[in-house]
Amino acid sequence: MNNDLKRAPLDGFDCDWLVIGSGFGGSVSALRLSEKGYRVGVLEIGRRFRDEGKTVPDPEKPNPTFIDVTNEAAEVLARDTGGVAQSMILEALGNVPTTAHILGGAVVAEGPERGVVDRHSRVFGYRNMLICDGSTVPANPGVNPSLTITAMSEHAMAQVPEAKAGWWSE
Ligand SMILES: Cc1cc2nc3c(=O)[nH]c(=O)nc-3n(C[C@H](O)[C@H](O)[C@H](O)COP(=O)(O)OP(=O)(O)OC[C@H]3O[C@@H](n4cnc5c(N)ncnc54)[C@H](O)[C@@H]3O)c2cc1C
């Protein structure tokens, strides 16, 4: 926790919802919740890029530089669509996996045995915890994802009742 946050006057502050992170998912969630009449707190850690924007590979578990099944899938898709399967130049020449679109991880599923959240982004096993960010986008769509993240967050927020309607019943 940075020093400014430690000094923040949080005593006596109360909220109905706490949104962690004010990115594409978090900011739209905070907006919609406040429009529904809730008191919303947003915790934002700040500084998006650390270590000058680089990620540091784990020497014991380096990123794979070639994934057979992904390569095969790309070739099948290219064949079926008349396209060309390609890698990015840094991947092909430098063995460096590269993306600005880090997505997935919190799988949307029918139940906890197969995933992390339900179709309304609610975490299995918790009544009022939602994940509204890129982790619920199942895989990299290959195009800019922020509008998809925003749309999925809008969908999740649309399921939350108005504050005056009382707390979530289901
Ligand atoms: C260089 C770059 C360029 C991009 N360009 C585009 C583009 O042109 N178009 C596009 O659609 N997408 C683009 N993307 C992708 C897009 O920015 C992300 O997919 C999107 O921001 C992800 O949204 P999110 O809500 O999941 O997370 P983010 O928008 O990353 O938000 C997460 C927030 O949580 C905060 N946070 C993290 N941990 C904590 C914590 N412990 N406590 C409190 N706060 C925390 C972070 O500081 C951040 O503000 C780009 C990404 C990068 C890196």
Short description:
With 170 residues, the protein is mostly helical. Helix content is 29%, strand content 5%. The protein has a domain at 51-98.
Written overview of the protein:
The longest helix is centred in the middle third of the chain and has 14 residues, at 68-81. 12% of the residues are buried. By secondary structure, the protein is mainly alpha-helical. It has 5 helices and 2 strands. It has a two-stranded parallel ribbon. The protein has a domain at 51-98. The protein has helices at residues 3-7, 24-35, 68-81, 89-94, 146-158; strands at residues 17-20, 40-43. The structure holds flavin-adenine dinucleotide (FAD). Flavin-adenine dinucleotide binds at residues 20-26, 43-45, 48, 100-101, 133-134, 144-146, 149.
| Oligomerization state | single chain
Reading the helices and strands in chain order gives: HEHEHHH
Alpha plus pi helix count? 5
Can you list the strand order of the major beta sheet? 1-2
Q: SS-based structural class?
A: mainly alpha
Global shape: elongated
Low-confidence stretches: none
- Tell me about the largest β-sheet: 2 strands, parallel
Cα gyration radius (Å): 20 Å
Q: What small molecules does the structure contain?
A: flavin-adenine dinucleotide
Number of strands: 2
> Span between N and C termini?
35 Å
| Share of residues in helices | 25-40%
Could you outline the blueprint of secondary structure elements for this entry?
Blueprint: H1 3-7, E1 17-20, H2 24-35, E2 40-43, H3 68-81, H4 89-94, H5 146-158
Parallel strand pairs: 1-2
The structure holds flavin-adenine dinucleotide.
